[in-house]
Amino acid sequence: MATDIRIDYYPTHEHEGIKFRRGHALPFGATMVPNGINFSIYSSAAISCTLVLFERGEDAPFAEIPFPEEFRTGNVYSMIVFDLDYERLEYGYRMDGPFKPEEGHRFDKSVILCDPYAKAIGGRDTWLATPNWDDVYPYRSRLVFEDFDWENDHALETPIEDLVIYEMHVRGFTQHPSSGVKNPGTFAAIRSKIAYLKELGINCVELMPIYEFDEWENSRENPATGGLIVNFWGYSTVNFFSPKAGFAATGKFGMQVDELKTLIKELHKHGIEVMLDVVFNHTAEGDHRGHTISFRGIDNKTYYMLTPEGYYFNFSGTGNTLNCNNPVVRNMVLDCLRYWAADYHIDGFRFDLAAILGRDQNGAPLSNPPLLESLAYDPILAKCKLIAEAWDAGGLYQVGSFPAYGRWAEWNGKYRDALRKYLKGDEGMVGEMVQRIQGSPDLYYYRGPTASINFISCHDGFTLYDIFAYNEKHNEANGENNNDGGNDNHSWNCGVEGETDDPEINRLRHKQIKNALTLLMVSQGVPMILSGDEMATTKGGNNNTYCHDNELNWVDWSLLEPKQDIFHFAQRITKFRRAHPVLRSATHFEHRDYVGSGYPDISFHGTQAWQCDHSESSRCLAFMLDGAHAKRGTILDDTIYVAANMYWDALYYELPVLPEGKKWHLAVNTDMPSGQDIFEIGKEPMIEDQQRFLVGPRATIILIGK
User: Fold this and answer.
1) What is the band of 511 on the pLDDT scale with cuts at 50, 70, 90?
2) What pLDDT is recorded for position 631?
3) Could you tell me which NCBIfam families the record lists for this protein (predicted)?
4) Within-domain flag for 580
5) Whether residue 173 sits in one domain with residue 114
6) Looking at residue 317, what is its pLDDT?
7) Per-residue b or e along 320-358, where b marks 16 or more CB atoms closer than 10 Å to that residue's CB
8) CB 513 within 8 A of CB 465
C-alpha cells in the first residue's frame, strides 16, 4: 500500500543544484525537519539575507542561497533546504542593509554571520589552539542532535535553603598538573572529582561561563612575564546557546554537547545541582572597534543599547550592553534559558551584572523590568533558581532592592563586605553582623533569608586565604600597572604582606579562614564558597585574574596535604550545617517563642548572656538558635550557641542557661589545633564549665545544647 507523503516534503525552488522551499518562521535557528533543515532568522532592518553553507572545516562555502523575498514573513527570513549532510554541515548568513552607524545600522554583506540561535559553534574546537586569523568565517554555526539518553534524569529541585554552592571554573578546576585526572580542564575531568565534591559536602556547583566565548579576545603578551594574557574567565559571550567546545575533551570531534550533558547527568546522580553563570549584559563584539561576529551584523539597533549618535552604551565595562528589554532580545534570552533548562536539565542560573537587565534602551532603570518579570513567571523556568549579581559597571547597585517578583535571589555583596570587616576587627560592625547572620532581614524582609546568597570570596576578588594574607591588591601580572581590580578589599594580612615562614602568622591566617567558614555556614541564607578555598589556595594577592590561564586560576591539588587542616575543617563545617535544620530556615526569625519552649527562636548575646553589645568598640557577638523552633516535618533540632570574638585577647563569654536535662557540648573552637578544632556530629564533648567559656583571641566557637 502506498504511503502518503506530505507535500511540503518536496522542494519548490533550486539554486546551484540545491533544492529548497519556503520555511517555517518559528522556531528561530536551524531545525531538522523531514528530509531537510529549516533555517529561520530575524532582522528588523536588513534588505536581504543569504544563507551560506559550508562543509565542516572547509575554507570556502559550497553554496550561498539568497532568500527569495516571498520567503520573508514580516522581518523573518526562513527556508527549508533539502538533502544536506546534517553531521558535516556548518552554516551562516550574510545580511545586506544600510551601513549608517549614526542611525544604529552596521550591515556589511561581506561578513558571514553566526546564527544567534546556533546550538553548537565550530571553528574554535580546542582551547587556545592558534586560530586561522584569515578564516572568512571563524565562528561556525552547527546543528546538534537530540539523541542523548538522559535515562531518568531531571532537575533535582533541592530546596534553595539546603544548598551549599561551589563556584568553579571548568578549566581552572582540573587543569593544574596536580589534579591527577584524564583530560584536565574539561567537562569530562570534573566527573573524576565528583567524589571529592561529595566528601566536601557540596550539593550545587555554579559553573563560570560555559557558553562559547573567545579565549583569544584581547590576548597579548604580558610585559611583566612574557606570558600570554587571554580571556580566561569567559565573561564575553559569542553565542548563548552553545557550550564551549574548548572545555570538552571531545570538542575537536564536535561532541561538546554530549560531554556536558553526561557531566550534568552524573552530578545529578550524586545529588549535586548545576547552576550556570550567564552573561546577558554584553557580548564579545565589543564597541565600534570590535569584531562583527553575529548580533551587530544581523540587527545592531535591536540587540544593543545605543546612544543617540549610534555609539554603544557601556554599562558592562566591556564595550557594549545588550538591549535586553527590547522584546526581540527578551524573547531570545527566554528561549535560551528555556533551552538550557529543558534540554540540559540545568537547575538554576546566576546572572552576571544583572542590574543591566533592568535598564531600558536608553539605560534608565525600569521600575518593572519586563525581562525580569518574564523570567520570574516563565512556566518552563518555574523550578529553576534565579540568582542576580545585583549591580553593574554603570553604578546601578540593587543589593536588597533588585526586582524580585517572589523568585529572585541575590549575591549579597553587603554580606561579603560585613563579614570581611568584622573578621579583621573593624569597629562598629556588630549591629550589621546581627542582620547578616539572620539572612539580612534589613535587605530581604519581604523575601525571606533564601534571597541572600552569602559569600566571603568568589572568582572576582581575593581568595579566602588572600583576604588574610594581603592588605593591597597585587595585579602587576595583568599588565595594567596594577590599576585594574577593586581597591575595597576589606582585607588584613595578619602582620606580613604575602607569604611568610612565621608560624604564628600562618596559624592566625588558618584560624581566620576557619572563622570565615564557620560564620558562613551558621548564617541563614544560602552559603557559597569559591573552589580551592577549602584548601587555602592563593592568587598571590591578585584580585582580578580574568586573563590568566596558569597557576593563578588553576586549583593546586597538591595543597590538600599541607593544608589538610583547612580541608578537614571545611568538610566538617558543611556537614554540621547539613545536620542542623535550624541553620537553614526558609523564613525570617520572629525573635519570640512561638512553640512554648521557653526560648525565642533566636537571641543575641555578648560577653554577658542576653546582652548584645552594639557599641562602636565592640568586637564580640554571640547568638543562640533554639532547636525547638526548627521543626521540619517531625525534626526537632539541638540548641546552637555561636560566639565570635574578633578582639585581640581571649574573653570569657557567659553562657545562657539551658533547659533542665540539657548540657552544653563543644562542636567548634577555631582557637584549637587541628583535630580539636571541630568534632564529628554526635561526638561533641561536654564542656566542664556550663556557666562560661573562654573564647580565644580572634576565634569562634559553636556549642550544642543537648
Assistant:
1) very high
2) 61
3) glgX_debranch (TIGR02100)
4) no
5) no
6) 83
7) bbbbbbbeebbebbbbbbbbbbebbbbbbbbbbbbbbbb
8) yes
Q: Is 423 helix (H, G, I), strand (E, B) or coil?
A: helix
Beta bridge partners of 668: 678, 702
DSSP letter for 677, please: S
Contact 440, 513 (CB under 8 A): no
139-159: average pLDDT? 96
Residue 631 contacts residue 577 (beta carbons within 8 Å): no
pLDDT band at 1 (very low <50, low <70, confident <90, very high): very low
Count CB-CB contacts under 10 A for residue 680: 10
Whether 167 and 244 map to the same domain: the answer is yes
- The domain that holds 216 is classified in CATH as 3.20.20.80
Given the residues 206, 273, 389, 410, the one annotated as active site: 389
Closest CA to 320 of 279, 349, 351: 279
Q: Cell numbers at residue 6, please?
A: 506530505
Q: Among 467, 488, 489, 455, which Cα is nearest to 538's?
A: 467
| Structural contact between residues 334 and 341, judged by C-beta atoms closer than 8 angstroms | no
Residues 129 and 243 in one domain: no
Cis status of the peptide bond prior to 27, with omega within 30 of 0? yes
Residue 401 maps to a domain: yes
Polymer length of the chain: 706
Residues 173 and 111 in one domain: no
CA distances 645 to 25, 178, 477, 494, 505, Å, are: 65, 37, 37, 16, 18
Q: What is the pLDDT of residue 7?
A: 53
Q: What is the pLDDT of residues 447-493, one digit of tens each?
A: 999 999 999 999 999 999 999 999 999 999 999 999 999 999 999 99
**Which triple of cell numbers denotes residue 135?**
578564516
Q: Is the predicted pLDDT of residue 54 greater than 80, yes or no?
A: yes
Q: Active-site residue among 299, 352, 410, 637?
A: 352
Hey, how many other C-beta atoms are within 10 angstroms of the C-beta on 397? 14
DSSP letters spanning 156-172: ----GGG--EEEE-HHH
Instruction: Tell me the average pLDDT across 180-193.
Output: 98
Q: Is residue 483 located within the same domain as residue 399?
A: yes
Question: Is this structure's pTM higher than 0.90?
Answer: yes
Give residue 41's domain range: 7-142
Cell of residue 292, nine digits: 562583527
221 is catalytic: no
Active site residue 389: yes
Q: Are residues 126 and 168 in the same domain?
A: no
